[in-house]
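Hey everyone, long-time lurker, first post.

I ran two proteins through the pipeline my lab uses and got sequence/structure pairs for each. Pasting them in order. The first:
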Amino acid sequence: MAGRVVVRWRLLLRDDTGMVSVEAAYAMAAIAAFLLIGVGGVAGVAAQIQCTDAAREVARLTAAGDESARRVGAAVAPSGAEIEVGGEGDEVVVEVSAGVPLLPMLTVSARAVAAREPTAGESTAGESTAGESTAGD
């Protein structure tokens, strides 16, 4: 009887049925991980493009003096994006940053710079003001 148990035990140790199932499970997990990373990468690129578009629009509208710049930027930017507007003098600097939905540890951002447009009553260098003549008399 003991001899039969030993023989049967040795047969069980050499039996590799079920190994294909384990290998297939590992392969499916690897495929799922690569698919998640791939789709996350595409989502990251899309978020980067949206941040760039939003930063450009906010900088352009802010430079023109439009009060709806942040609202327009929030509509263009990915959901949950942060929009920071700053700048000095005749320059507007906008930075938009957002997280990537499928890759929570990844944050994308974009920065845009625009020159402020002159407002009514201001004149730029080289322009003549009302009442001045630039032509020779």
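...and the second, right after it:
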Amino acid sequence: MKTKSLRLVLPALFVLLLTSAFRVSAATVTEDALLFAIEKFPIEHQGPQVIDLKVRLDYAPDIGGKEYPDFEEVYTKLITWMKTYPNETDYWEPFNRALAVKLLEAYPKVTSVTLEIVVHPTFGIQYPHSSRVTTKR
């Protein structure tokens, strides 16, 4: 008789577990993004400068597990692009915009890129200043 009542309890427990699993998988992700910073980066742009760069990549809602960009690859690309930017005399805004557009073009499942550059004070300009750019698909 214990076996019979146990058989009735197990299916009910199984349904409960399935219901709980369904609730978890039905959750809506409202924000999915990669955020990181490159701090105190020395760069030759408008003369020798030191900058902080804050990076935010927003992902498409349908991004798959293997479609996320590798953080180290993103970091390395940004460093390379900053070092090889063709016009050293551009203001920070076009420089920043060019980096954001390159990131958006490089990663198809990224829907938005926000970059904030903070330029540290120098002897010539003794106060910090910044540029923030957001590009979207």
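Reply from user beta_strand_b:
Welcome! Quick read of the second one: The first helix runs from residue 2 to 25. The helical segments are 2-25, 71-83, 92-106.
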